[in-house]
Design goal:
Blueprint (H helix, E strand, L loop, with lengths): L6 E7 L2 H7 L9 E7 L17 E8 L7 H18 L5 E3 L3 E4 L2 E11 L6 E8 L16 H5 L5 H15 L4 H10 L7 E4 L2 E8 L5 E4 L4 E4 L11
Parallel strand pairs: 1-2
Antiparallel strand pairs: 2-3, 3-7, 4-5, 5-6, 6-7, 8-9, 9-10, 10-11
The protein binds biotin.
């Protein structure tokens, strides 16, 4: 599905994800909702997503055809599109599984994918926050960075969005296997160590369904995201 043919712009909104959720039936598929600030921006695990003016906050809507097993494909596609748009600004970034985009351990982009529906998925909201011109991250200053923070000059937020849309739409035509190779290539965590159930493991890879492949002398395990905390890598 091509996104961004239509873009709704707000100066201030609670959360672009919540706006789409509330209006999912009347909004057309592929629509992008963007806001200059968010008063209740949300991250994963019920975290707040600080959303002061100067960064890019947007969401887009996909309807119907996505099966639950395809959510990881969507996540990979969005992650790779962000990596590519940052490359256009001469910035090399990495993916911290499952979906944080980092530059040298500092987060530049977060992705929040929410799906709704009873048995089947009725619709999916993909929310993306990219730090563009923010310079002071306060208590998060060790953990966050912006495009301006890397380049040293202001960047047009609309230009960043335009590049995202271009890359995302180009990836529509790429088979998942190829896209997934890119996802792995940019992935930060492969080769790192992690403790699972009190035992140390090596992260060997990520499966194409989004499971982490971990290994020790005795066994190989496929574990899903909610079984592990990615904070504890070493
Ligand atoms: C995360 O890393 O925890 C995900 C952060 C996602 C933030 C974006 S900003 C636009 C959209 N609206 C929200 O309320 N959240 C997402």
């Amino acid at each position: 599905m091509i996104i961004g043919k239509k873009i709704l712009r707000f100066n201030s909104i609670e959360s672009t994800n919540d706006y789409i959720k509330k209006n999912s039936t009347s909004l057309e598929e592929g629509i992008i909702v963007l806001s200059k600030i968010q008063t209740s921006g949300r991250g994963r695990s019920n975290h707040e997503w600080m959303s002061e003016e100067g960064n890019l906050y947007f969401s887009f809507l996909l309807k119907g055809y996505i099966s639950r097993s395809k959510i990881f494909e969507l996540l990979s596609k969005v992650s790779v599109a962000v990596i590519k748009l940052l490359k256009d600004f001469n910035i090399n970034s990495k993916i911290k599984y499952p979906n944080d985009i980092l530059i040298e351990d500092k987060k530049i982009c977060g992705i929040l994918i929410e799906s709704y529906g009873a048995l089947e998925i009725d619709y999916v909201v993909v929310g993306i926050g990219i730090n563009v011109n923010q310079m002071n991250f306060k208590e998060l200053s060790e953990k966050a960075i912006s495009i301006k923070g890397v380049l040293g000059f202001e960047v047009d937020i609309e230009q960043v969005l335009k590049k995202f849309i271009e890359h995302y739409n180009l990836l529509e035509d790429i088979p998942f296997a190829n896209l997934f190779n890119d996802y792995l290539e940019y992935s930060l965590i492969i080769g790192k160590r992690i403790d699972f159930n009190g035992k140390p493991y090596l992260i060997k890879g990520i499966s194409d369904s989004g499971k982490l492949i971990i290994e020790n002398d005795n066994q190989t395990k496929y574990i899903s995201l909610n079984e592990i905390s990615i904070k504890d890598l070493y």
